[in-house]
Design a protein that fits this description.
The complex is a heterotrimer of chains A (297), B (240) and C (204). Chain A has ten helices and 13 strands. Chain A is an alpha/beta fold. Chain A folds into two domains: 28-146 and 240-279, Periplasmic binding protein-like II (D-Maltodextrin-Binding Protein, domain 2, 3-Layer(aba) Sandwich), CATH 3.40.190; 148-232, Periplasmic binding protein-like II (D-Maltodextrin-Binding Protein, domain 2, 3-Layer(aba) Sandwich). In chain A, α6 (177-185) links the parallel β9 (169-173) and β10 (190-194). In chain A, α2 (27-37) packs antiparallel against α10. Chain A is globular, with a radius of gyration of 20 Å. Mean pLDDT of chain A is 85; it is low at 1-28. By secondary structure, chain B is mainly α. Helices cover 82% and strands 0% of the residues of chain B. Chain B is built from eleven helices and no strands. Chain C is 82% helix and 0% strand. The model of chain C has no long low-confidence stretch (mean pLDDT 88). The chains are: A alpha/beta (297), B mainly alpha (240), C mainly alpha (204). Chain B binds chain C through residues 1-2, 5-6, 9, 16, 19-20, 23, 25, 82, 84-90, 93-94, 97-98, 101, 172, 175, 179-180, 182-183, 185-186, 193, 206-207, 210-211, 213-214, 217-218, 221-222, 225, and chain C through 37, 39-40, 43, 49-50, 52-59, 61-62, 65-66, 69-71, 143, 146-148, 150-151, 153-154, 161, 164-165, 168, 174-175, 178, 181-182, 185-186, 188-190, 193.
């Protein structure tokens, strides 16, 4: 914790001195190098969605500002970093030639309408592909596979598997996939919904609940910063994350899927993973999921 | 008696601070980020968004509230009564969940401002009505008997007095409105409180961040109230 | 459905509990605010200014996550009730104060001239007259407080609004569910309004 704080405040001071425009050296240099290597699509069919985006010169992305490792805003620079954010910039570069994105904050309730009325072109927001959702949006991908895990306070006994959550109080982020995941494995669990990861984590540490269910990578990040927290077992769900697109736009979907295949093949995908989720999850980058493998994609 | 209570309050505060410090919340490292300009620039952006949302809400609510106040129909009456008794949060949820499926999906800013304005218009209407009612009817008659037109009487006699009487309620209403923009938290409009959430997510300093946020609200609203007191005082002076 | 009923009951309990304690605390605060001792008056004013100028949502988050850090921890429902009481007490105090102010200054002085103490003049002269003037404002605060309990949902209390939201996530029937919840609040507020109307007539 202390180390993070020092580096954070150091980062803040550095950017403060630099007038706030340039970002922290080191982290973004590699991101810049990554971006330099990123592919750009050739001729685009006139009138297609990607052609419109290229003419506009900006990719409109629905996403989060407060999802650590995936899409988190750095208050000092205003920059949004993480796996989702990096991928969305790569896609922007692929379409436009420049990594120009504009982030529109979305919530799990507003994603479908945002796509339907064209407020955003794509959604990058741990958007789990389900057949039911696929009736209203098109999913490219899956571009990443994750799962819900359980965290407890160190020394907690009686929680070793998901079914143990039954009858216990369990924390989940409000309106996150965790809520339904808990209901499925432990129908009698009492769910305490809180707004953000730090709130959930604080509540767990303060003993307001027995366990906290959240995406595994976020929990690993939490546990790496906080010695009072430990993970229990492996993820108990498989959540294939898709890139949300406007329903019925088959041409754009094929285009985005082709781009995904290309960055997976060239290893760019793995580099983005190493620079974000890979900073807390040990080991080599996982094998990316096969495009179209999830039901609904 | 007073000495005792002061000592008791001071002791309680000290005790709380002590416990707070014991749990490590007062460590300098946890407060240092709040001494840096980038963090403040970020928070001030949020505060500015709060002010913008409050301003937009205030203008719409005041205009709409005025219309409600002058209209004699019972529809306006019902509107005021019903809006007063439905939580803004619920109206925001309707904006968020119901209307998009009917093709009405406003930008984030308006998803916050419109429900707030709809709700606060009812409260503004009440204030306007009370304000006009507070002016002695004799004043209006006096104005008319001096040869002023109906409009002139309203403009030069009734309204100035009504506004002066309404000012305190108008200001507390505006403070209430500014506080209500914190519901941007729900629609993820990046006002002050949501900015705080993003910050807390980044620096993992939940309590420190929200304490600072509370302080910013306090300063902004106290400034607003003291401005109104000045205004009130100067209005009172010109009235004499 | 049972979740909605549970939410409604939680809202009712939260509203009733908070209103009663806000009134009691509000009386203490207003006595401080109109006290002749400057220090006490200062404390009363500071209380009102602090609570009125910071959003309830911020107070809720601060208390829910901050109190355990100073070793005070009780269930979320009770924390929310305490915060709402503290917050609304500031409004109650202001309503009471303007009621007291509305009683002509001469009245208090007359009472003191008759040899009544501060407490006696409050009790026998000022309060009965002020009571008439504060029924309506207190009723408004009661209604506002009912609406305010919806914010407790943001810190994990499953009250009416939160319950409606959760049911909507599962059922995806937003129009029906939110209109239903809105009607519940409407009925609650109408009930409070009726009581206030009765009381007003009795005092007048």
């Amino acid at each position: 914790m202390g180390k993070l704080l020092t580096s954070l405040s150091l980062a803040l001071l550095l950017t403060g001195c630099a007038g706030g425009e340039s970002a922290v050296p080191g982290s973004t240099t590699t991101a810049d190098q990554l971006m330099a290597k990123a592919p750009v699509a050739g001729e685009l069919p006139a009138g297609s969605t990607m052609d419109k985006i290229r003419k506009r010169g900006e990719l409109l992305v629905g996403g989060s500002l407060d999802a650590p490792l995936l899409s988190q805003q750095n208050p000092a620079t205003g920059e949004v970093t993480g796996f989702d954010a990096e991928l969305s910039r790569l896609l922007a570069k692929y379409i436009i030639g420049e990594p120009r994105t504009k982030l529109v904050t979305a919530t799990s309730e507003t994603r479908e309408p945002l796509l339907a009325n064209g407020t955003v072109d794509v959604i990058f927001q741990t958007y789990t592909i389900t057949p039911k959702r696929a009736e209203r949006v098109a999913f490219a991908g899956p571009y990443y596979e994750s799962g819900q895990s359980i965290a407890v306070r160190k020394g907690t006994s009686g929680v070793t598997k998901p079914a143990d959550l039954d009858g216990k109080t369990v924390i989940a982020g409000a309106n996150t996939p965790a809520v339904t995941a808990i209901q499925q494995v432990a129908p009698k669990a009492k769910i305490l919904e809180l707004g953000s990861d730090p709130e959930c984590l604080t509540a767990l540490k303060q003993g307001r609940a027995d366990a906290y269910v959240q995406d595994q990578s976020i929990l690993i990040a939490d546990a790496s910063l906080d010695r009072d927290i430990q993970l229990v077992g492996d993820p108990f769900t498989t959540d294939p994350y898709g890139i949300g697109l406007k329903h019925g736009d088959a041409e754009f979907k094929t285009f985005v899927n082709d781009w995904l295949r290309e960055i997976q093949r060239s290893g760019l995908w793995h580099e983005v993973w190493r620079g974000s989720i890979g900073t807390v999850v040990k080991g080599e980058a996982p094998v990316p999921p096969a495009i179209g493998s999830a039901q609904g994609s | 008696m007073s000495l005792v209570s002061v000592v008791v309050v001071a002791l309680l505060v000290l005790l709380a601070l002590r416990r707070f410090g014991d749990s490590g919340q007062l460590d300098f490292a946890k407060w240092r980020p709040f001494l840096t300009w980038p963090v403040w620039r970020f928070l001030l952006t949020g505060a500015w968004a709060t002010v913008l949302a409050a301003f937009a809400t205030g203008v719409i609510a005041a205009v709409f509230g005025l219309l409600l106040a002058v209209s004699k129909g019972f529809l306006a009456r019902w509107y005021v009564e019903i809006m007063r008794t439905v939580p803004v949060l619920l109206i925001i949820y309707v904006m968020l969940f119901v209307l998009p499926s009917y093709g009405l999906d406003l930008p984030l800013f308006w998803k916050l401002v419109v429900p707030l304005a709809l709700s606060h218009a009812a409260l503004f209407a009440g204030i306007f009505r009370a304000g006009v009612a507070s002016v002695d009817p004799g004043q209006r008659e006096a104005g008319l008997s001096l040869g002023l037109t109906e409009r002139g009487t309203l403009r030069f006699v009734v309204l100035p007095q009504a506004i002066r009487n309404m000012l305190p309620s108008l200001v507390s209403q505006t403070v209430g409105l500014l506080k209500d923009t914190a519901l941007g938290f729900v629609v993820s409009y990046t006002e002050l409180l949501y900015t705080g959430r993003v910050l807390a997510n980044y620096n993992h300093l939940l309590i420190q961040t929200y304490l600072v946020i509370a302080l910013v609200y306090l300063v902004v609203n106290l400034a607003l109230s003291s401005f109104s007191r000045h205004l009130e005082a100067s209005l009172a002076r010109t009235a004499r | 459905m049972s979740l909605l009923v549970e939410g409604l009951l939680t809202t009712l309990a939260l509203t009733g509990l908070s209103f009663v304690s806000a009134c009691l605390l509000g009386i203490v605060v207003v006595v401080l605010r109109i006290s002749t001792v400057p220090v006490l008056r200062g404390i009363g004013t500071a209380y009102v200014e602090t609570f009125q100028n910071v959003p309830l949502l911020v107070w809720l988050v601060l208390f829910v996550f901050g109190l355990p850090e100073i070793g005070i921890s009780f269930p979320l429902f009770w924390t929310a009730a305490v915060v709402i009481s503290l917050y609304e007490a500031a409004y109650v105090a202001e309503a009471l104060r303007s009621g007291v102010n509305a009683v002509a200054h001469g009245q208090g002085e007359a009472a003191r001239a008759l040899g009544l103490t501060f407490a006696q003049s409050l009790r026998h002269v000022v309060v009965p007259q002020a009571a008439r003037k504060v029924v309506q404002p207190l009723g408004n605060i009661f209604i506002a407080l009912t609406m305010a309990t919806s914010l407790a949902g943001a810190v994990g209390v499953v009250e009416l609004t939160r319950a409606a939201n959760r049911i909507n996530l599962a059922e995806a029937q937003p129009l029906l569910i939110f209109t239903g919840a809105g009607l519940c609040y409407l009925v609650l507020a109408a009930g409070i309004g009726a009581v206030v109307f009765r009381l007003e007539r009795r005092f007048a």
